[in-house]
Give the backbone structure.
Amino acid sequence: MHTHFIFLFLLLLAISSFPLLADNFRLRVHTQTLSLLTEEDIHAEIHFGKTVAARLLGQYPPYDNKALTRYVNLVGQALVLNSPRQDITFHFSIVNSNTINAYSTPGGYVFITTQAIKTMQDESELAAVLAHEIAHITEKHIVNEFKIKGKDDSITSGITRIVGGSKDSATVAFQNAVDKAVDLLLSRGFKHDDELGSDQVAVTLLAQTGYDTMALERYLRRVIKATEEDDRKKSNTHPTTDLRLDTLNEYQKSSDLILHFPQGKKRFQAITSNNL
Amino acid sequence: MKNLNYIVLLIIGIINASVSADEYHYKDILIGDRAAGLGGTYVAVSDDPSGMYYNPAGIVYAASQKLSASMNTYNIRKTTYKNALAGKDWVRSSSLLLPNFFGVTQPLGVGTFGISYAIPDSAIEDQDQTIPLDISPNDGNNATTDFTINFNNQDNTYNAGPSFALKISKNLSMGITLYGYTRIQEQIFNQVFEAPLSHNDIAAVEATETIAAVDAVVNTEDVYHMENLYISRKEYGIKPIFGIMYTPYEKISLGITFSNTWMLSNTIVRQEVCASTLRNINTTLCKQGELNRLKTEFEGTREFPWELATGIAYFPSNTLMLTSDIVIYKGINATTKPMFNISAGIEYYLTKTFALRAGGFTNNANTPELIPGVINRYPEHVDLKGGTISLSNFTRSSSLSFGVVLTKGTGEAQVLSGSPNLQVTEILGITAFMSASHSL
Amino acid sequence: MKKILLLLSFIALSTNAFAADEYLYVMSAKAKLLSKPVFGSQHLGLISKGQKVITIKKTNNWFQVKFKGKIGWLSRLTVSPHPPMKRVKVIGLAKADISQHSRLRASSVSTTAAVRGLRADNPRVSEQVSDYAALEKMEAFGVSDNEVFAFLEELE
């Protein structure tokens, strides 16, 4: 009698310990290959990011100052070393512009305007802005939006193209996507969810690197003030700042990410006062 | 003597053009690579562009939301009417290379939108058959002649239109496909018979016991019969498909679809010509020694049976899937019977990138069983059974499938118009298909 | 018979338990293993990129893991279920590539302009100029990992 119960119990336990798949049970095993990243994909991402980056540089000339560029690169690379993407090389550049902004393109290209640095008061704020831009890259917002993928050169996909009668319009599609990405960065802006997501990744990166996690909020509040007098139209590349601050606040509270780590104020002020 | 009897039948009851029409079966061409591999069992699966044809509610479950799929088939179909013509088989065959499906889906707002195009029924027959007939009477004189049939038939049914599907809750989705229905048929059918019979032959025949039969045949030296038929048919309508997909338990999916075709217009033009020297031939068209023409135009609509399909699919793991469907078709009127088809399929992934599928299905005739001794309104009844097997290869963004569909069945037909004789009829169909899909 | 069933259910159970053993790979250059799922908690050691750890528990932002006998917490952004890929470097665009792009630019711009319907208030996008020289300069600028670690050490 006892063995019966033990047997039943064990069987139930065995069954119940199968991983529950919720409603994705329809997905067949081949779809696992969909999410696999190949080296070709990263090549495609870098190639795409470079092309967009060159456009941005054509728009905003780089600010040629070695010391400041080195400083921005050190802060940026410190965050990168603590980021989950070690498969690409990040590059940081300061661009000359009177607008407060920062951009990033896939493949690891991050830009920050001189005006943005002028608005900052310490290194953790610089780190916060760079971390936000790094997050767009690590979370692949543009890559996903424009479906940047490596070419599938397998025989099967070759035959598929013939059977399906699809033309190889890759080059046109590429240029088209580059145009759209530039448009996204310069005027349309990211999806709100992407922006809010980047904020959350940014504060986590700050914490992982050892910077004050309140820096992003501090910087954003200052930017509101600075642009309020201007004209808040500009913020069409970023979500309504109030919503953004509320979401960020909530996230930091719920995730124990209110960490008053170092701000690097001295170092920041010494370098910027001499080089801006 | 035997042969002459056949000639009598042959001449009086020349071949009935309405045998083996497409509309006697509902599942002649399987749509969609995965669906075709599963024997057309897809009502509870339906999660790719071909789902728009089987159950539009399923497209919300597509692994990749933006998908395109296309399918090409090479189809051979052979229908053999045993001993139909003077003891000889009449064989009709159709072969066609057909791009029979194209579809794309993509997310739109809260749901998934798609457009698809399907050819669920198609025949291209091209026949030039000369049947040598030995009509020697028993007098020892040899007399042979030919019966020539030229037959060309192109009959295609097209469905094209948009679909939209919505996830109502975590385990329920609904979808609709609104197909435009078009059927275009053109048929040319020539039958020529010429018998170089001499008076001597006839006299010899007359000496035998079947004088009446010979009488019916000839009394001139040279006998011929020629009949020509041209049919052009254009049908237009709409075919909405409503679908529901429900997940009662994890790993189980249920699908239900309801569809019907409403014909909005139908034009049939029939032109017939008959010239005959047969003595006592007396039909509306054919009279001895006359050349007659008849042109009829018909406009009107016909009723289609609604279809109710239900399916169940079981996904025990991410490499194995079993599914089964039952499709019920309403009878249209007293003469077309309600009937159903069942099918089942299995899918197994040999590796992460290769999937093997197999299925079985019935493709029953919607015509009633033929009643011997009378002339039946629908002159053919052949229930078919089919089996399929396919292999798919997946890459990250595309898949390619090859497969074969085999259909076979034996039934009865009344090939000769005006004759109640039944012929054993065998249908054999082989379809090879190749299809491709892309995630965009 | 009963014994066989018992054995079978044991096997089922043990294979499940085995299947549930999930690994994570460290993605960041050096991940800090912490004693609690809180930044600033006691530091148990550094795990370098590519190392495999056994997952014990998962929360929204933290993974409790076992590594070389030590049990501790890793921040979610430092790990991934897939092993890290080698660093991919694409230095410069091939010359042909660039010239192809410059040739393509005019037509592609007109194509996209037609498709997208360019907005009058943002004519800049249509008149894009690419600065590949500045890009090369940007790529050429680099700092070593050691410089970065030293830089972080001095953060106050």
Remarks:
- Chains B and C do not touch (no CB pair under 8 Å).
